[in-house]
Structures are given as structure tokens and as C-alpha cells.
Amino acid sequence: MPIRSKRIYDDASPDDGVRMLTMNSWPRGVSKARAGTYKRLLAPSRDLLRAFKDGTVAWPEFEERYLEEMRAPDPRAEIQALAQLAAEQTVTVMCACIDEAQCHRRLLRELIEHEMKETA
Q: Taking the model in full, what pTM does it have?
């Protein structure tokens, strides 16, 4: 099944399957029902996100550091569980970022897809 990615503020769709919000802070105006499952563990650390937003860390370094954070045992286990879930149904990874090209949700989607290939 596909792994999708979208903003939490985008309209929900029946094609979303399991909706999963991955942010450190709860987004304003978003109900728990709209967010679906909440996986704070898969969001970038507050320090990393702050450094990226204030410009002390450029995207390439953010990407490298986020991927390193996801290698820790707990996030790794969550990614493996999501890969198993995604093998059976659609999973949509969400956060508030506008630009998916420079957003952890794209990286997370790629990690889940890679894990699916590894376990297939």
C-alpha cells in the first residue's frame, strides 16, 4: 500500500487510510479526530527543529541529523511497525510544513518505504 504525505491542514480524504500526525507541538485548531494517530516520537527533536527554523542549521544538515535521530531504538521500532501497517493499508504521514521538499514528513515517508522493501 502507498505511504502518503500531506499537511495536517489539508482536507482529509478517504484515500488517506491511517492518518498519522508527527509533530512536537499540537497544531492550532486541529482536532484529535482530524489528526488520527499522533506519533511525537517520529518528529524532529525540538532543538533540531528550532535550529533549522532560525537558520543555524541548513537543510542538508537537518536531514542528516533527523535521520540519525530516527536510528534510535524507539523511533526505529515505530518505523518498523508503520512499515508493517503500510503493507496492509494506506498510511498518510502529516505535519504542518508547507514545503514537503524540506520537511521531515518526506524523510519519514522514505524511511517507511525503505523499511517495507527491506522486510519484503
A: 0.93
